[in-house]
Amino acid sequence: MARRGRILRYFTYALLLAVAAFAVFTLQLDVRVRNEFEGRRFALPARIYARPLELHAGLRIAQPDVEDELRELGYRDVPVGDTGWFKRSGNELEIALRPFVFWDAAEPARRVRAIFDGAKVVAVQDAAGKEAGKDLPLARLEPVPIGGIYPAGNEDRILVRLSEVPKHLVDELIATEDRKFYTHMGFDPRALVRAAASIATGRMQGGSTITQQLVKNFFLTPERTLSRKFTELVMAILLEAHYGKAEILETYLNEIYLGQDRDRAIHGIGLASQFYFGKQVKDLSVAESAVLVGMVKGPAVYDPRRHADRALERRNLVLRETREQGSITPEQYMAARSTDLGIAPRPTTGTSPYPAFVQLVHRQLQRDYDDKDLRSEGLRIFTTLDPRAQQAAERSLTKRITQYDKERRFGQPGLEGAVVITDPSSGEVQAIVGGRDARYRGYNRAIDAARPVGSLLKPAVYLTALSQPSRYTLVTPLDDGPFVWKSRGAPDWAPQNYDKKFHGMVPLRVALAQSYNAATARLGTDIGLDKVFETIRKLGVDRPMRPYASTLLGATEMSPLEVAQMYQTIAAGGFRSPLRSIREVTTQEGKPLQRYALKVEQAFPPEPMVLITAAMQGVVREGTGQAMKSFLAPEIGAAGKTGTTDDQRDAWFAGFTGDRLAVVWLGYDDNRAARLSGSTAALPVWGDIMASLLPQPLELPSSEGIEQVWIDPQTNLRGDSQCAGAVQLPFMQGSAPQERSPCVSVAGAVADTVDTTVQKAKSWWERLFGR
Amino acid sequence: MGTTFRPLALLLLLAGCASAPEPGPAPAPVEQAPPPASTGPRENTAIAGLMESARTDAAAGKLPSAAASLERALRIEPRNPRLWQQLARVRLQQGDFSQAESLAARSNSFAGGDSTLRAENQRIIEDARTGRR
Predict the structure, then answer these.
(1) With contacts defined as CB-CB under 8 Å, which chain A residues touch B74?
(2) Is the pLDDT of residue B28 over 60?
(3) Where are the domains of chain A?
(4) Mean pLDDT, residues A38-62
(5) Same fold, A354-450+560-593+626-703 and A454-555
(6) Of A93, A113, A179, A328, which sits most exposed with the smallest number of CB within 10 A?
(7) Does A104 sit within 8 Å of B69, measured CB to CB?
(8) Which pTM value belongs to this model?
């Protein structure tokens, strides 16, 4: 008896100890549940958008390009529902715009019609409502999302409130996943018994309530052990004890994993609605929400894009179970069942289709924001990316690199390249390609590769010269004879020309157009290296320059982006604007946080810029860039410069039209000789890109300090339009040659009484130098 | 029960990135801008609309908004000297004198023979220089 009493007492102690241990365990879990659940905020990636397309009468864009952009936005090309579609009829495009909150205003949902003529919008009108048919000054489309800056695991989600979620979606979820959700205390005892039985048979399975699923996703690792299952159960009970059903459900709907978009994980019903249907969650139909609910069980298995048949079968099961619960009527059931899946045709893009551009955006953001905030606060970043320019750049670079690789067979790793496109008037970066594989998220040659720029620096030498109108004009003779540069502490340097010849006396504009090295080196040392370096700095290049004459010919390294900055200042007529990839940053609700405004600084007076631009147009018209004529009409008047480095390791072309500036680089990462030149290899890439973007002609700004003068290219004297091959060139007032060429027609000479007699043609430099 | 749990509300609060919007120091004393230049017959209606909303915003002291509208217009017509001039005026009003001066000079570079426009740009440049001193 006493012995039995003792055993009973020990047993009681043991029991009490177990209870105490359990209590401690529960208390610990309780603290964890409350701390983590309450402290937990969903990390929301910063969302990055391209520039919005603004339709207005006069816009130069082809109808198919607008349609492409709408498709990228997930719009359908047939009218379905109120918004998010477009309809083509001949040269008209009717668009049902979705609402969108911009930095400065919220654009409402509305129906617009754009009328095209050729590659131009001729009218934009209201297409519905009272105002139908009325002209609209401007219709701003939604900006295409181009990626994000993601938290760990590349988790992406759009948060929704329970009140935005349609009731039928919740009904379907509960009918399928947890019928007793509103009545249980976090677990379902019968399911638990079943689960226990399954443990006995050695197969752990199912029986999880919505609360348990949430606990599992939120707090626990995916291992399937008995102790973990037990912890999950206790935590589920605790969660239910502290929080209401609505809060648990809302969190669940935002947490749930619903598929993969390459490296991006799709979480939550809000993003899934967008990703699969191109809709907001509140607009999901009974059938559509059933597809998403069906995916909860296995997002990969029931992926409606990859396994449409399975997804359809699963959707119908969800609908059936919902009808059995009485949450939808038999009529609703029949109607929903008979629809097809209705998945939006949006291409999968992973974390970003344009990783090189996003990289630039991310870096510019890091100057002003903590990386942690970028990865968690759901900021909205409005950028300057122009999807059309970006796609043109990618297409052209890939095409040409593949072609060159095939022609040369220089082995692996293959030829590489990079492209930067900007808007010359504002410095907005429109496109960045960081390598031959534009989807690759790694080494970004456009911003990180520093390569010798070769002749791309020459415009800076000539600009420095042309800033001294009393000494240099476009027709000033330069000496392209052999040249040796001596400096103490540096080896002698004697530059060769590309064609291994020297050309004697040549007019300044020809020396640049033909990219003569000896003439340029002599010119640069005559005016002074310091002055040239100062010009380069004022053009926007921060890199220190080595104080050698060889620097003048491009023995200095720059990234394609830096080159773009330098040419930007030339293209903008001497006004320097820092290159920008971001316009605005807002909170996720659209509250403005920061604007990156257009900034300009006048770095040069206008007149020499007119001269250097005209000289660079000469490069394209008749110099090393003349192959451009197979890409662009001469009326475009593109200005640019080729660049080729020693042993043809780097091939460059940088230049601009009236509305775009682009820099193209080609070469090998390991610096092998590429045997490609700027004019034969980089120029075609540039030409392809510009040709496909409907370039605007480049017009030289008129300036009071500039006069246009006809020049006879034979004598480099004043001619007239009748002289053979005469060219009209800009001169600063008073700097043009006074003497008339013999080619000037007699009538003209008589009319112009100031004309001096020109009898015998001494060679023009003899006259100029008085020899 | 459940009263302390506000995960959604919590994450709406933005921590640590309350960067200041565009610099907007005390508006400089500026004379009343002259009446808006009449929009020429060739002027795009989109431009006219954006210029109008920029004027309204500037008058209401919403200078960053005014600047944004003008930048939008400049993307459509980058060679329109009136847009550059109006942006210069907004910057002057914001007390950003160096931008005001540069933007007025930029306007001049597209002004051609329009002497009225040039004269007004010159006035902005002088005001900016005075303001800077």
Answers:
(1) 425-426, 598
(2) no
(3) 1-40, 57-137, 152-337, 354-450+560-593+626-703, 454-555, 706-769
(4) 90
(5) yes
(6) A179
(7) yes
(8) 0.84
Q: With respect to CATH, is domain A152-337 assigned 3.80.30.20?
A: no
Give A502-566 as a DSSP string: --EEEEHHHHHHTT-HHHHHHHHHHH-HHHHHHHHHHTT--SPPPSSGGGGGT-SEE-HHHHHHH
Q: State mean pLDDT over B56-60.
A: 95
Q: Residue A89 corresponds to which tokens in the numbers above?
A: 């009829």
> For chain B, how are helix, strand and coil distributed in percent, rounded to 5?
60, 0, 40
Interface contact flag, A56 B98, Cβ < 8 Å? no
Cβ <8 Å between A41 and B10: yes
Look at the domain A354-450+560-593+626-703 and name its fold. Beta-lactamase (3.40.710)
The CATH architecture annotation of domain A454-555 reads: 3-Layer(aba) Sandwich (3.40)
Which residues of A are less than 8 Å from B71 in CB distance?
426, 597-598
- pLDDT tens by residue, A452-490: 999 999 999 999 999 999 999 999 999 999 999 888 877
Q: Do A241 and B20 touch (CB under 8 A)?
A: no
β-partners of residue A728 are A710
| The CATH fold of domain A57-137 | Penicillin-binding protein 1b fold (3.30.2060)
| Band of pLDDT at residue A650, cut at 50, 70 and 90 | very high
Percentage with pLDDT > 90 across chain A: 67
The structural domains of chain B, ordered by start, are 44-132 (1.25.40.10)
Question: Which residues are A655's β-sheet partners?
Answer: A640, A662
pLDDT tens per residue across span A600-649: 999 999 999 999 999 999 999 999 999 999 999 999 999 999 999 988 89
Could you give the 3-state DSSP secondary structure of residue A201? Answer: coil
Q: What is the mean pLDDT of residues A223-250?
A: 87
Look at residue A303 and give its three-state secondary structure.
Answer: coil
Q: What is the rounded average pLDDT of the residues A50-54?
A: 97
Q: Token pair for residue A271? A: 């993003």
Q: Does the pLDDT value for residue B26 go beyond 60?
A: no
Residue of A nearest to B10 (CA): A41
**Which residues, 6+ apart, have CB-to-CB distance to A404 below 8 Å?**
A415, A666, A676, A681
Q: At a CB cut-off of 8 Å and minimum separation 6, what does A328 contact?
A: A168, A171, A286, A319, A322, A336
A57 dihedral zone (left: phi>0; alpha: psi -120 to 50; beta)? beta
Smallest Cα distance from A125 to chain B, Å:
12
pLDDT in tens, A474-533: 999 999 999 998 888 778 889 999 889 999 999 999 999 999 999 999 999 999 999 999
A589 flagged as catalytic: no
Q: Which residue matches tokens 């020309």?
A: A497
